[in-house]
Amino acid sequence: MRIRATVAAVSGALALSAFVAPAAHAAGSTTLDITFSNMTVNAGKAIVVPATGTVKVPVTYKVTHAASLSTSDFYAVPVIYHGTSIKTSEYGVAPDTDPTCTNTSSTVQSCKATLNVSRADLVNSIAGTWQKGGIAFDKDGNPTFQDAMGKVLVQRQSKLTVNATPEPVKKGKTITVTGSLTRANWESGKYAGYGSQSVKLQFRKKGSSTYTTLKTVKTSSTGALKTTTTATVDGYYRYSFAGTTTTPAVNATGDYVDVQ
């Protein structure tokens, strides 16, 4: 019997308890002799989730099973989850569709799967470090869990703007550079200001490909940025945010200023 692992939405959260079939609580359930390894989520990159929509996340992994087990005796899926263990976590994601597995030996499978991470199923407080893990089901739906297979970041998408004025400007005069740092609010489905964050003001001279940091500015409580600098030569101004555990790094598109 093929068992499909699915995720159920409960009060806006992904319930990992939905993985556990009723048979899992039956007396006499056994632990499968199966090990997950070499699990790579999103090619090793952070999972950045916008304010709306769903992010498709590729996962590759290896499953090693006892020689006494046939591949028809179990079903093994990868999961990512927030917390210390799969069984106790309130938030996590497993594949909505069957993984694709290839037998590389009599006891080893090489597998691929896709996780659909939806903004609608997340809350802001769980942005940051999640864990990788796996669940193997036997024919009766009894699960065997493997926790803490490595960390993965699930982050709130960030946006950064910049505007340098006046344009054009006379050499030696003051340029005012404004901007805004925002990030996805998963609960409202909109972008909101990211306050009290250090952001670098950078400059790239016309004809150059390299930005140089001029100063560091803090965002206001609403994510607003404002500072001044002196006009010297033609070039591009941008703000650059290094990122945090919960929010990825982002650079504003450079704003060109003509110095006359």
TrEMBL record:
Highest rank taxon of the organism: Bacteria
Keyword list, A-Z: Signal
Secretion signal span: 1-26
UniProt name for this protein: Calcium-binding protein
Organism: Streptomyces sp. 900105755
Source organism phylogeny: Bacteria, Bacillati, Actinomycetota, Actinomycetes, Kitasatosporales
